[in-house]
Design goal:
alpha+beta; Alpha-Beta Plaits; four-stranded antiparallel β-sheet; 10 helices; 4 strands; 69% helix; elongated; transmembrane; transmembrane helix
Amino acid sequence: MRAQFVLSEIGVGLRRNLTMTFAVIVSVALSLALFGGSLLMREQVSSMKGYWYDKVNVSIYLCNKNDADTARTEAACAKGPATEDQKKQIRADLEKMPIVQSVQFESTDEAWKHYREQFPKSPIAAFLTPDQMQESFRVKLKDPSKYKVISSAFSQRAGIQEVEDQRKTLEPLLNLLNGMNIAALGVMALMLIVALLLIVNTVRVSAFSRRRETGIMRLVGASSFYIQTPFIMEAAFAGLLGAGFACVLLVGGQYFLVNNWLVHQIDVIQFIGWDAVFAKMPLVIAIGLLMPALAAFIALRKYLKV
């Protein structure tokens, strides 16, 4: 009988405050969708760092005959292309360094082949020839942060055009994703505050509209928890609906934005899969259920004198 009464009171409260309940559901859904999206974006950035930082190398580009022809602007290659003796000495010195894990030489033919494999849609790929590419040493460091040691030791050597840390090409993208993640967290926090204010206001209006019923319940000896339960469950139910919609938004974002668009637009990134999305859903649902219930409980202590 008590359970039936509580459920009937929940239905009455939701019908009386239908507009505000809908606003609570939308606010909770958007805030939790942004929260879940931020968690997924953070996991994506961490995955990219772990994958790419483990693969990036320090590239030491050697002078070729084309650099020698443009020596007026390439002072490092003014003495012509790198000789075989210079290549052997560079490799030997690299292999002696304790911070170096491995050294791999890439010929012009290999560089040309790798370029065509990595950028098959590039408009200049069809016009490039192997002799236009540069020979290079791909140096794998035990600690990628020690790039400056290699740069200072080899950047001024004869036969070397440039020493490049490949992490520099990834940092702008990772910084952009981190910035987007921070912005999403900021918007999420704002939407969360709005949702909490709406929950508190909804509970206040609901408690005021049913002050006669709660007064009668107090007179017949109903406990505080029994009187507060319908209001708390109303807020929890609205939050649960909002969390459900947030999960739908996350699934839709993964399916339409990631799987059906970004995967085809960006080939060099390994995007997170469905397992990461499904792993975040229980947390989103738990927050959607508990947050409104806690906000309603706190609000009732002030607005419902029991």
